[in-house]
Fold these 4 entries.
Entry 1:
Amino acid sequence: MPIYLDHNAGAPLRPEAAAAISRLIADAGGNPSSVHRAGQRSRRMLEISRAQVAALIGADPRQIVFTSGGTESNNLAIFGAITASSRRRKIVSSQIEHSSILAPLAELERRGFEIVRIAPDADGRIDPARVLAALDGETAIVSLGLANSEVGTIQDVAPLSSTCGNSGALLHVDAAQAVGRIPVDATALGCDLMTVSGYKFGAPAGIGALYVRDSARIAPVIFGGPHENGMRAGTPNLPGAVAVGAAAETAMHAMDEESDRIGSLARSLLNKLYDAIPGLRLNGPLVGKLPNTINLTFPGVLGESMLIALDLEGVEVSMGSACAAGAVEPSHVLRGMGRSIADARSSLRISLGWNNTADEIDAAASIIPAVWRRVADAEPLAEVSAR
Amino acid sequence: MKPRVLVAMSGGVDSSVAAAILREQDYDVVGVAMRLATEPTTPVAKRRGTCCSHDDFEDARRVAERMDFPFYVIDLRADFAARVVDNFVSEYIAGRTPNPCVMCNREIKFDRLWSRARALNADYVATGHYARIEQGVDGRFHLLRAADETKDQSYFLFTLGQDELSRTIFPLGAMTKTEVRARARALGLATADKPESQEICFVPDGDYASFVERRSDPAQLRPGSIVDRDGTRLADHAGVHRFTVGQRRGLGVASGERLYVREIRAESGEVVAGRREDLDSAGLVANRVSMVDDSMALAGELSVEVKIRYRHRAIPATMRVDSARRAEIRFTSSGPAVTPGQACVFYRGEEVLGGGFIERALEAD
């Protein structure tokens, strides 16, 4: 069996989520908007799931809007905010966001919005003071990732909430990588909007949520029926919703145990790799990051070769973001953190999750150095593109 | 353990069938599509079906899905630019006519890709080339023409030596194109009826001169005059990179008789034009000569058939290689226009003995 170490791309389905889907499929399957009792049963299941997701992030169920996933939640946050505050033409974010933030910002820049992208420090931290300095009365929304998808750095967003509130800007936190992995409390953070992605903590792809503190402050972007309190038209994805509800409940109850266990597995992997690979470098901070994520620069090799070689040996990791044609571009996150293009091309992201075992990590800790030695020997970087 | 083979897949029918055949023969097939060109391919390129576009990669991916083997896109753009495209541009600027497919095979498919293959623990590299490799009873490898003469691509492969041949598989060498297409249809491959790629993959519109101009410093270009054999100026031109020996069209000379490019003198910028019969040559000098079996290089004078352009017929000649890897080749009877920069490949019957790059023609007596 391959060793799956790419949970930040998507986690395997939790058995509790699979069971919830099975139970739903066995039911009549009414539309939650319908009047009949089949519809009522579906509606009840939908609302239970909503409460489970709300509980995971310290929110009220009425503040949870189900979406098709993190990308839709981010788009709803950004476009919903600028539509609702049409006078304001400025957005403050960072250089190291996910493409589902960066691409909407690029589109809005084309439409004439002013976009401020704060640079991170060398560990991927965004200085809250720099965000506050960019904030003004023109700012519609401040959008920051809570935990970076590639290096795992956790941002200190709590200090932003009162100033955002005073200046009338919405604070959006993309918590796709954090929710279900570390304790996240939307109310305590004081944000207005928070993105949740079910796929990252054991629900299937295709279900997510946006926490909306005050629904008067954003406008919908998908129009149709009055679903999701008018915030998101379209019959809710009930199989996804029951799965994300079950995954949320499981993740919440298991969180302390899981984050300790996964954190210690990741630390043990990192230490073994440090011992076996001279010159190996961790990208991102040692503390103040997701316990499951380790982003590493492997000396003297192309990350692309390592990634493929590891896959063929049954260790599944990732690198940067894949472009349309399938070739991998150097990570904008690592570039933003000041790493060279060459270093970014030599880097891989290893992300653990709920189902990884100590045996798997032991195996990975011996396979990865062996593959590194083979790749470094067969295809040394010095030879690449030169003769 | 099954031997692992890295198959270079372009998304065309040939490499698709090559991969599928190896999969059926129970190799551990790993498919790779190489991202090579840095300029986006144009809609024209798509129609003509050159390789390396996004759609072609998707076609290759579908073949891998259908035949159930892993497939990856690998990024060799920097290597391709440094080892193939830069050479293409500098050769044209120097008044020669390069053959980038030969360079790509030598530098990318059978060198750079081999490094990747070893990194991936592969034992072999395979491509959809039409050529055959056979191992003799003495253990030496022989490179042979394809069974399908009309598709034979052995010309592009002369740089392969014993090391390369020992780790290379050409699954299509014994097949005709018709058989390959039939096989693709039988396997249900989406690429079965794709058109042939024609142009050089990184110059999809076929306009080499403009490509060279885009990729070079204008100060490097050598404009000058078109002159006749006696040095009389016939016209001016915008750069020697716009010409190739043997070319007739585009000389911009009004003349009663048909004129051809006979010689390009990059230093002075002179392009010498002549009549068709002025193009004939007695032979050529080649450099960077490599032999498939290196012991052949020491064999003194060899009787061979030499092919001086891909689409030309091989003609009888005698040759001798010196210690600096240069060869003097004398045609048995006077030969056609010799184009510096092109590959000349030495055959003996079906077998490729080696080849080199044409430096200059030997004047007819």
Entry 2:
Amino acid sequence: MEVEPISQPPAPKVEPVTSADLVLGVVAEIDDESLIALCDSLRTLPGSPIIAALRNDHASVQAGATSEASEKMHSPYFVPWPSSKTDDPGTPVVNIATAYQSAFAVSEQLNARACCIVASTIEDAKPEWIRELVQPLLEEDFDLVSPQYALRKFEGLLNSSVISPLTRCLYGKRIRNPMGPDLGISRRLFTKMLGTEKTGVHPLASIAPAALCDNLKVCQVLVGPRTYPPPDWTNISSLVAQILSPIFADMEKRAACWQRTRSSTPLPSFGKPVLLSQDTGTVDVSRMVESFQLGNRNLQEIWDLVLPPSTLLELRKLARLPLEQFRMPNDLWVRIVFDFALAHRLRTINRDHLLKSMTPLYLAWVAGFARDAEAADASGVEQILERLAVAYESAKPYLVSRWRWPDRFNP
Amino acid sequence: MWGEIKRALAQSTERFLTRFADLLPGTAALLVAVLISIALGFLLAVIVRRVLTSMQFDQRLTQWGFHSSSEWPLLKSPTLLISRTIAALIIVAGFLIGIAAFDAEWTSLLARSIFAYIPNMLGAVLVLVVGSVIARYLSRSVLIGAVNLNLSYARLLSVGVRWLVLVLAVAMALEHLRIATGIVELAFGILFGGIVFALALAVGLGSKDLITKSLERDAQKVSGEKIEEPFRHV
């Protein structure tokens, strides 16, 4: 007796998505089932918004789904994410800048009211924090919803030392994670960002400044701890250069805006604060201090071109301090950041050299911060960072003055 | 007797005056050639300087990652350097043309051989300038990279790289000038090999700890041990 092969049920016909209220782009690794569950969860928001999920095929394969399975998975939510695949199959991280720009382009094509891009790892099946990130966009008509992560004291150090306080000082809003990377963006803002695509500045560095300079509605959502795969940053100098370069470039572009701003105000905030347990043990900062001392001995010829003599003198004094007394004063660190931003603008030396030569100075700040924060609890760390942010604001006249008359302070 | 002396003196004076008179047109031509070349050189230098300034040549050079104008080793500004070099070349060319106007065989030969040598000189100068720029760029890259890797011999590496490139550039320039090519090749080989050997020894001996740490880290990765790093920068 011949057995007829069991025919596969035909795949349900899925209408292509032609319009949506919200476009969701998940840059991190996620399988199709989880992405559908996430969209279902967002669909239950008031007003039942139509969701379009950008599918990053490469990430879904990385997440464990076979390519065959992912091909077979159909969903009314899915839209292709152009230019989101990485050329290097060994690298799971897509090019964030391209991913953002292509997400904005798709959002505009679909005439979406808002776009939400998630770059952190999604651990729950239905993460509440993504709903919270989307809600102010759809319900309160905010233009930019930025996350405020609950961090352990030694996490997000580059953000704490430069990005957040610098943005606060420049644009007058106390934003904790201006570069996201998990962000909710309104139609008004992503249309604007698409218009500035050719400026060459990384979109993550320009989104918050663009919103703040144009007086768009910006808020923060307390989203709990951020989970992301540990980056293999064996060379911190590359990290410093890659992150600070677009920030300084955007700063140059918006000089007319930030020179008008004085003092800062808090942003509207949503969500409940999450307190993480903080370690209070001592940390070893000797390698960072040694790195600074080595830089102080060898990089003088570069720092001489960037920093004024008074700062160089203070750095020499700092290099002579014993390990237990090692602290970089806030005002010194702030002036260093401002001077490097100015040198980046003036192209005093090759920009890559400039930013990489800042690494020993950054490590000196981290060492001092670690010394201060090692015994502090969460509120103590908050106070330290608040003092740093205030130092940035106090030194703003120095920045404005150097920016306008760069030769005046030159050695 | 006295008459013969007077005649000989008169003849030699006449010969001197004739020779001197023969030189006068050539001298006048030389003066005119030099004056014209000075004027032409000045004019061209001004034009080149204006064109390069309007192109923001100095800034562009810095943007391309070569140099800050304030550190330029020969002159403070590459624009000035180029315009002045052009002016100097035109004046030298005018002087040589003026010498050739004496219509003497040796001056023509001298001028011809100097003119034939000018491309070599220009090539050598170009090689030296480019070599100097590359040497500074590479030595700075190596210095910053080595400091960020916490290598205590960062300065030594940087200086070594600078001298490697400079020695190469000087050897190439001398080769262009066709000056003692055999000796230059030998000296270059010895110097280049010596610097590489010295660097290899210094780095090899100095980086024992670094390699040990790197191997330990790799071994930890292979055995699945988690490396705890309290600091996360992003």
Entry 3:
Amino acid sequence: MRVLSTTALIVFFSFISWPAPVLAATITQQQALSFGTIALRDNSSAHQMNIAFDGTITADPAFIIISAGSPAEFLLSGFTANTLVNVSILVPSTTSVLAGAVDPSTSQFTIDNHHTFAPVLTTNLLGEATVNVGARLTTSGVGFYKDAMYIAPMTISVNY
Amino acid sequence: MLVKNNVFRFIIASTLTTALSFSPLATAETTLANASVVVQNSFVVAQTTPLSFGTIVAFAENNSSVTSDTASLLVNSDGVTADTITNGTLSKIIPVVAATVATFTVSGAAPNTLLTITLPAAFDLTDPSLTDSKDFRVSTFTTSIVTSGSPFTYDTDGGGNMVFNMGATLTTDATLAVAVGAVAYSNVTFTNTYTMTVNY
């Protein structure tokens, strides 16, 4: 009888120590990385604009900022609570392309130096974390830019 | 003893299962996104009121030996100051209907940004019907700000808009070569086009 009660206790302990069902980990873009709407005073040489992960914008005087951009914001959710996760940004191509169109006559931008506050984050009690991503925009320094939206892809990868 | 062994095995199995369920797995989640920038280099410059020297009676000096004898009509860019007429010895301008300054409206530009206006080069007004071969010279352009982001400054307001006037001076023909004295312009409309350039 005493042995049976010990077994029951162990079984109970085993059940409560079994991990709760893990939610599907997801990465949701809350805000896109945007350099805003700009005009260029000149493109006879390369000019740069930086958007830091914290939203700080620095730009060469050649840029006229019509509407300010913002860093990307991603919400990590469904991860294990209080867990370290590694965030990396994969950039298959730093050269921009025209959104929704092909026009070889226009110049393109280089978007690189993607960065976050830190490559390793800790999720909170809810298994969530927020990742902000900044980057650098560089003009071609030659040719002209058509009025259009220019985009460059990136992949946010979270390892845990 | 048999019971104890079974319990021990169960403890081992349970512990192993529990340990396995907590072991870290190398897992990755990814999502695709875009970085973007919108280029809006162009903005709109619209002529809301054309430059007009009004209706005038005009005489040109038709003496090649006195080419400096011209009459002029200055239209002030502020749109308020009265037109200034300077007549020559024989050349005359007599206003009938007052002149109006040109007004240009800039829109869709960057807010609170200084703009640069490039005035046109001097050009001639001619009679498209060729009834009158004489012309007028339009030159000495001036501008005045009407509305902008800052007083007396050619910068856009918070909405990227700016309005400015352009005045100029009309001068009678100084290139006639037949010495017959003053000659009247025909009752026709003398016109031409010009390009106003506004840049960041």
Entry 4:
Amino acid sequence: MTDAPPILEIDRISVHFPMAGGGWFSGPAPVLRAVETVSLAIRPGETLALVGESGSGKSTLGQVVAGLREPTLGTLKFHGVPMGKAEWRAARKAIQIVFQDPFSALDPRMPVSDLITEPLKIQRIGSAAERRERAAALVAQVGLPLDALNRYPHEFSGGQRQRIAIARALAPDPSLIVADEPLSALDVSIQSQVLNLMKGIQEERGLSYLFISHDLAVVNHLADRVAVLYLGRLVELAPRASLFAQPSHPYTAALLDAVPRIGRGRRRRGRSLSGEMPSPLNPPPGCVFHTRCPKVQAICKITPPMLEPAPGRPTHLAACHFKE
Amino acid sequence: MTALDTSPPRVEQAQSVWSLRWKRFRGHRTGMIALGILVLLVLFTLSAGPIVAWTGIDPDATDLLSRYDPPSAEHWLGMDDAGRDELLRLMYGGQISLLVGLVSTLIGGVVGLGIGLCAGYFGGRLDALLMRFTDGMIALPLLPLLIVFGAVDLTKLGFSSEFAHSGAAGFWRVVVIIAIVDWTQMARLVRAATLSLKERDYVLAAKASGASPFYVMAAHILPNVATPIIVAGTLTVGRVILLESVLSFLGFGIVPPTPSWGNMLNNAQELVTTAPALAVYPGLLIFITVIAVNFIGDGLQHAFDPRSSR
Amino acid sequence: MTGFVLRRCLQALLVLWVMSFVIYGLIGLMPGDPLDVMIASNPGATPEIVAHLRQIYGLDQPMPLRYWHWLLDALHGDFGFSRTHSEPVLIVLAPALAQTCKLMLISFVLSVVLAFALGVAAARKPGGWVDGFVSLFAFAGISVPVFWLALILIIVFAVQLHWLPASGMGTVGDNGLIDQIRHLTLPVATLTLASTGQFTRYVRAAMIETMRMDFIRTARAKGLGEGRLVIRHALRNALIPVVTIMALSFGTLFSGALVTETMFAQWGMGKMIYDSILANDYNLALVGLLFATLITLLSNLIADLAYGWLDPRISLK
């Protein structure tokens, strides 16, 4: 990781979904605020982990970065260039995505060689012969045997399919891969294999990951920086070591406390969260976390906090009136 | 000390999904029997040409003196109501009926496919519009509509009188009007399948690489809806054959002198009293064909989806 | 709920209106001309007289304009005159409509009852010989050409055995109920047999599906006899979707009814439409077709509403 300019910059991205309902008699239609004013940057060669529970909006944000969803507000800049429709066409090969479910990520009707080189085919890169060569190289890189090329997805296990999906993402030689919970559907023993594979590929190629996950143990292994989302809002953004050693936002602290530590001492008490995440259709006023926060005060219910550095740690940002 | 196997790894052909399916179809007894029957029927109809060449009988020669002649050594099933050889009429009629079934299914299938794909993939207002239209068509009484279409005078549409009365025009008219009313089932089927398929992750992955809607539909959606389309198409052939036969029977489909299993029963009331056997043969052939096609369709359904209930 | 009903009614009206326009146009493409008969019967009709007549009857106006006039008349209840019957169209069609509805309803009820009996019997032991027989019967039912079935029935019961009349609605001079029933038997039998096939398949499939469900296994484990009790449990659950599909199929019986009426000389809507197209009586054909469309639309609407009302899980949006 260098001080090179970021390859991806997100500036106050919001994704709103207008819902059915409303009309002349019932007032305005409800709006689902999946992502609300998130700003991030990803540097070359770095892994930025995007962490949150279900409903936090992390998948939606991942889709925006991968170009699968248009943000309602805000801008996205790739290599400093603001992305409009025309820019996306060229950028498609530089940003790729790996999905959570290895079973629906691959078209069951296509052999592996076609699956892997599909991004090249769509982007019209290389001749058929060149694509075949590339497929063989990629298959080797993800640790699968050469005869896998002529086989069909149903002949492979979950972990192997995920490798195929990774090979597909690598085919157009991207600079950024959005990995949307790539390990969540795999058995634990397989997870570490695929995780190591991804790490190795990153070191080799110097590409960046936007690694979306709800599993903090995995994040601890792979991430350089961690961004924490709650109800579509960015509540903490910090280097990994700093976040895990001393989280600044109460939500992050509670998340870390909830991770079971097998054989490593007792859990710290007193920081479990009450209640459930509120509905993104009706976010609480002020700080959205105030309904569950153990530190809640009057100001939290009125004024939403800004994302600012924690006291004494300029690279560790948190959105809390009482950050540590 | 064991020697290292340094030979390059063999790249084997995987057992494709299709050979698996053919195996399952082969195991379905009624489906295979039905397929055999259908093949026999097709061969039966196609043997008209060779028989004419071999025996020298003119299939179109009418001879009013030989009307309703009983079966003889020369004319195995006897003569029909105009003195033509009944067996040959059945064969040629079969060719026409089967051909109408096939062509009409293809045309209607393509139309239904197109409409279903667009409606399902693009969604939104296009979907709503197309579905209103489809639902409207489904709500119409089928046969009366076909009769009206069939009764249209082609000369009023600008065709020459000579063309309008030719056999080719008659054939294409029937094919087109059946295709016009029969595409709705395919459209609904394809739309439902497309709706579920377009959300799959592999479609999203293709889109992330910049795939156009056209590419997605051709490369990902179509191959995955192939199986229900094939089953539906097979059943459609049966339905179309029935439609053509009733239309021709009523006089609005294939008109004589071109034979069709349906129009061979045109003056059925007369046949019933004078030569009941002649009233039985054409309908029996239609019945056997359609039931065979339906059984094949059933067998295909089991071959493609072994989980479906018997 | 009322919003749903209103919307469906409006949709039905829209379809009817579009159909009236389309059919009006199509009928204009039919062979012949309303004036042809007049010209044929009057050798003295010179081209000038014919042109003049055309003008008087408005036949030289463009089609959309003629359609508009027809529509205005129709909305006032004037559907024109039937040339072949020499009476206003509505007077000709009303009894025909009643006759067709009678035929369709009787056949529908009979085939539903028959389908349930057969389907339930088949589902009790899937794969057994009863099931095999019923499945074969059902396949035959959906594969048989209706007109040929009618022919076979006529040959067997009317010509060979002389048990039933081959056609007609009644013997001349006999208005008795028995005679009417005798004349109605073969047509109803034809239409019933033709529709039972597809209904049986629905019932059988739904019953087999339901019998597989966990709550049936529980009932059996509790000791409920296989016979009527389990059937009753399963049947009640399978009933709603099956009846809905059947009700939605009621409209499709019209095509079968058309053929049946034509074969057995029953003076219903189907035969009316058929005869009127053959005889170039286009006023009658047009209105007859619209009535046929109306029957189908109405039956679909009623089926949709009944389904929405019966199944509490459906929200009528």
